[in-house]
Amino acid sequence: MKVKSCVPILALAFMLLTGCASKTIFYPKSDYPPDPWVKGYADKNDCIGGEKLAAKSFTLPTYPKRAFKSGRQGWVILRLDIDASGVPTNVDIERALPDRLFGSNALKAARAWRFHPPQGGELKSCRVLLRYKFGKVSLGG
């Protein structure tokens, strides 16, 4: 009799524990577009990929919920200036695929970045590639 009365409690505990342990899984429903050639968007004197930057505070953007749920993938090239104190200014989207899906998320993150003051003063037209791939965000190379 005692065993029978414990079965519903154990079943309920199992369901609660497995429900808490499950995580949302990213299921790609679009191919990742080929990475762009970032230098093709830049002039020879531009700062590419942050080569001249040393981050003080740098957090990648989160994957937008709408894109995650719909399985979308893509990338954003940001163009930004870095002032003499290491603060990003004039942050803008150079190009994004797909349009309007990842851009606002990338802009918000980039505006919060902070860098050590660049040697030689401010930097103009730095370009950074952000990849939104398989449910994760990474920097382009």
Protein model, in words:
This protein is α+β, with helices and mostly antiparallel strands and 141 residues long. The chain has a single domain, classed as TonB (TolA/TonB C-terminal domain), CATH 3.30.2420.10. 26% of the residues lie in helices and 28% in strands. The chain contains 3 helices and 6 strands, in the order αβαββαβββ. The strands form 2 sheets. Strands 3-2-5-6 form a 4-stranded antiparallel β-sheet, with helices on one face. It is globular. About 9% of the residues have low confidence.
Task: Name the beta content range.
Answer: 25-35%
Pattern of helices and strands: HEHEEHEEE
The class by helix and strand makeup works out as alpha+beta
| Count of strand segments | 6
Reported CATH architecture: 2-Layer Sandwich
Classified in CATH, the superfamily is TonB
- CATH top-level class: Alpha Beta
Domains (count): 1
* Number of helices, where a helix is a run of at least 4 consecutive DSSP H or I residues: 3
In the CATH scheme, what's the topology name? TolA/TonB C-terminal domain
**Distance N to C terminus:** 65 Å
* Helical content (DSSP H or I, runs of 4+): 25-40%
Overall 3D shape: globular
Low-pLDDT parts are: 10-22
Quick overview:
With 141 residues, this protein is an alpha+beta fold.
What's the arrangement of secondary structure elements?
Layout: H1 2-21, E1 55-57, H2 65-70, E2 74-82, E3 88-97, H3 103-112, E4 114-115, E5 123-133, E6 136-139
Antiparallel strand pairs: 1-4, 2-3, 2-5, 5-6
List keywords for this structure.
single chain, 141 residues, alpha+beta, 4-stranded antiparallel β-sheet, 3 helices
